Predict the structure.
Amino acid sequence: MLQSRLFAKTSKNFPKDEESINAKYLLRAGFIAKNSAGVFTFLPLGLRVLNKISQIVREEMNALGAEELLMPALIAKSYWEASGRWNVPVVYKIKTDREEYGLGWTHEEVIKIIADQFILSDRDLPQAVYQIQNKFRMEPRARSGLLRGREFLMKDLYSFHKDEGGLGAFYESAKSAYLKIYQRLEMPVVVAEASGGDFTKDFTHEFQALVESGEDTIFHCSKCDYAQNKEVAKVKAGDTCPKNCGGEVKESRAIEVGNIFRLGQRFSSWFMGSYGIGISRIMGTIVEMSHDDRGIIWPEAVAPFRVHLLALGLDKSETVKENAAKLYETLKAKNIEVLFDDRLVPAGEKLFDADLLGIPTRLIVSEKTGIKIELKQRREKDSQLLDVAEVLQCLNS
Amino acid sequence: MLQSRLFAKTSKNFPKDEESINAKYLLRAGFIAKNSAGVFTFLPLGLRVLNKISQIVREEMNALGAEELLMPALIAKSYWEASGRWNVPVVYKIKTDREEYGLGWTHEEVIKIIADQFILSDRDLPQAVYQIQNKFRMEPRARSGLLRGREFLMKDLYSFHKDEGGLGAFYESAKSAYLKIYQRLEMPVVVAEASGGDFTKDFTHEFQALVESGEDTIFHCSKCDYAQNKEVAKVKAGDTCPKNCGGEVKESRAIEVGNIFRLGQRFSSWFMGSYGIGISRIMGTIVEMSHDDRGIIWPEAVAPFRVHLLALGLDKSETVKENAAKLYETLKAKNIEVLFDDRLVPAGEKLFDADLLGIPTRLIVSEKTGIKIELKQRREKDSQLLDVAEVLQCLNS
């Protein structure tokens, strides 16, 4: 992709009315645009990141044996009334002369009615279906960029079982699939016990990414996997781990990037489980976790491009122009996703924007590099001067 | 995919309260589920079709040089007020204590505001961006299955140009891209002139699929490409073609599966174009156009699977079981998308469901076929008895 052709551009300044790191960087770098409080457009670079996160989640859901479907956002009032959730405060309501709808913020009600049509006996069980779909939540204080929006992208998985044992076993498989997803996203998480709300007396599990800017507080062991959300924890920071592992309880701020619920028979006569992952929230969380004072540092798995190729002094040197264009074609021919900064702007602006955009590998072609190429990882300080073969080798390893 | 594991199943009967062919077949075959009037879930098989249509559209939009982005459905009242479209009757409105939103049924208002941020001078033009996103329309009479829904999937493309000439040239390229899309979908369309509404005094163009069940009426020449929507036509059936080609004007019913508008400066100081394709409507239109009295006949490009493998008499014959399982593995290894009917149900039920589902190529393994395989195209009457190598050759050609 030629950077000169990109629809969205970086901004000279940070947005004025945003406090969160993810909103500041994503808006300034041109990954998202703000339409109103808690409502964003994913610009082309941002959509590439969002799609990569979705695809990782999709692959792990498919590996779990779940089938993808797509439910609507318009959910008739009768669905919510059947479950007693019409008056949950987060529902955006629409009233016309003929109908009333609540916009979907979750889909237990809808999938239950659909499953009724197809699950006729125990022989039709177990089943698991998921969707990656826009959700709507009336948040009184939409804030923190992609972390708490009014419209956001979710993956929601629902499973159906004939008994508690079947649900329990699938619940553990789903937990493993979730851990694999966060691992692929290079996002360390803690699995914290949390309250089941009105769904279940059992604990549910939250996948918490430890980030200083997180809204949640968790208590977790320094040594073992013990972790609880503040809401349910009976320990405090400095206590010895209740699992007697010899570790000490620490208190940390965290962002909830997933949750899994054993719903049991709350919605149906079968045993149901419900499993959520906030796709757009994960995008925001990655920025909160992985940045420096110059910009974003995307993990390779979700970066909008693998390589950012900068041609410096394009307008002054025919050689630079030719070498850069040739390298661009070589990378494309090798199926390496590359953003080529072919803009006629000062070198300083290109270097500044490259750090802001946060693409993992930066390649520079300039008068100074001559027939060589300067390669630098966004995460690292030092650069190397390599020839084309060495660059390709480096990108393949 | 094993058919025995599918979440959704075919129904014994047609739905009672549906009149349109597409709703009847898609519901009965388990491609979609109805949630309320004009609101549907895309079940796993249906989502596969929808995604294939989306991908064809996406590829042709990318080839046109347009970039994909994703705008929100929640659009603040101020956007609609700026364009004077807040009180358009199709807008679903949401009012909370703090905000008012109209759900997006089109996105000229939103993309205009975003483009303002990035298009600072003529040097930033031309630009073209598109999205594939759920739209919402308050249809008083939601009907005809996927043809006229309240929530539906659209591709909307917007282009920006410095002058009328630039817009005109891109408009023609978009028209060609559209024709390529319908060609890939195996959907013959007529390009009909239509009214520009309050946007433009020029004609706009509609892509009309000629189907008896269509809502629109068009007049078109039997010989040349002359075609007009009834709303603007000054001819009647039987007239000689106004283009003097010697052809005769015919009157046909049709479904509008795309439209392109030269908006000019209606929304901005640049020259804008707006180009829509109803993705879910196309799915319904394909069923209206391509079916027989036994079920759907999917064109290969959008079929949920390329091959439907039926094992008949599975429970009675170990050989059938082994041969079918082996063929299933062979097809998967060759990356041929295959649905394997491994259910323990009578042969008649499998054959009936295969016709209903409409997958292009049916393969039968049974006691009768022995080590051979019966291959039948859904479109054709006759079948052939082939060995595995011949089947693979047939699928590759």
Observations:
- Chain B has a mean pLDDT of 96.
- Chain B touches chain A through 53 residues (CB under 8 Å).
- Residues 15-71+107-295 of chain B form a domain with the BirA Bifunctional Protein; domain 2 fold (CATH 3.30.930.10).
